[in-house]
Amino acid sequence: MRVLGIDPGLTRCGLGVVDGGRSRSVTCVDVGVARTPADGQLPDRLAAVADAVERWMDTHHPEVVAIERVFSQHNVRSVMGTAQVSGVVALAAARRGLPVAFHTPSEVKAAVSGSGRADKKQVTTMVTRVLGLDAAPKPADAADALALAVCHLWRAPMASRLAEAEARAAELARAHKARLKSAQRGTGRGGGGR
Amino acid sequence: MRVLGIDPGLTRCGLGVVDGGRSRSVTCVDVGVARTPADGQLPDRLAAVADAVERWMDTHHPEVVAIERVFSQHNVRSVMGTAQVSGVVALAAARRGLPVAFHTPSEVKAAVSGSGRADKKQVTTMVTRVLGLDAAPKPADAADALALAVCHLWRAPMASRLAEAEARAAELARAHKARLKSAQRGTGRGGGGR
């Protein structure tokens, strides 16, 4: 499966394409960053990022797009821009019929480093290692985009197994309730027949 | 000038088209709301809102798009969705070469009611009155979209007059500083020639 990871941002938007095979083997297909000038108009900056993301989608044909889930704990102004970028990226994916998955920064950190509180350097080190790269991807946004894609590849099978298990449990619970109900009805009818 | 006002939202996105003539006369061209199901997938919901906004742009040919500026004081989850919608709306405008203006809720309230702290009902009442509508536009998101468009029409000339005045003041300040500098140089040279 080929995943396009996106670390959304107006000034720097990280882009990383990763192929996942069987087991946990992952390969870096491409990595980069789309930049827009800080003094540009917001709509033009959004359009520039959207154009870049769409070019990557058309070039690399990902099967799924993984986007970092934005939180608003940090700087309000930059979070709004980041949310707007994540919106135009999700739109571009939806218009191409590509599924979109959102992962939180701590899910990404945990997936690649084993700890949800790993620092940026540790994430970059692990991404460089698991993808077998000669050098660490730069800037950090590019490394984060690759980490997102790897996180998606490693979490997706787990998530779908979990969803299957939950669906099976719900089915068993439904069947059990139905049996209880019919047993009660049986008792009721039995009582009335006396 | 024709303005498309957008009150961004995922569940309900308000749309209002207003024509402004000379003086303060304003006319309602169209008003409505784009809805998406709360249980839908985020990318699909963003695409549905974007499709609706683009249909309105293609139908009504606005000259400018006025969008409510999003703040993150409120519910984090809904603010993120609102920011993402405002991003896809700004993108649609940019791709059509339409200028985009952002106005804060208090700017809108002040423009239509005279007070930045007016409540929703007061804004709806004033929008209904200034546009000469037979009935109040519903839901509130639709009325807010019209209020945004009216706000833009009434603020735009003021804003451009203000920008002109500021540019003129800056020019005068530059000229004054240049005169001071050359006067100082003149004194310095005069002293050297003594």
Automatic annotation (TrEMBL), chains A, B:
It is an enzyme of class 3 (hydrolase). GO terms for biological process: DNA recombination; DNA repair. Its cofactor is Mg(2+). GO terms for cellular component: cytoplasm; Holliday junction resolvase complex. Belongs to the RuvC family. Mg(2+) 2 binds at E68. Gene3D superfamilies: Ribonuclease H-like superfamily/Ribonuclease H. PROSITE patterns: RUVC (PS01321). Its EC number is 3.1.21.10. Its main location: cytoplasm. Keywords: Cytoplasm, DNA damage, DNA recombination, DNA repair, DNA-binding, Endonuclease, Hydrolase, Magnesium, Metal-binding, Nuclease. Binds 2 Mg(2+) ion per subunit. InterPro entries: RNaseH-like_sf, RNaseH_sf, X-over_junc_endoDNase_Mg_BS, X-over_junc_endoDNase_RuvC. Homodimer which binds Holliday junction (HJ) DNA. The HJ becomes 2-fold symmetrical on binding to RuvC with unstacked arms; it has a different conformation from HJ DNA in complex with RuvA. In the full resolvosome a probable DNA-RuvA(4)-RuvB(12)-RuvC(2) complex forms which resolves the HJ. The keyword ATP-binding does not apply. It catalyses: Endonucleolytic cleavage at a junction such as a reciprocal single-stranded crossover between two homologous DNA duplexes (Holliday junction). This is Crossover junction endodeoxyribonuclease RuvC. It is found in: Cytoplasm. The active site is at D7, E68, D141. One of its GO terms (molecular function) is crossover junction DNA endonuclease activity.
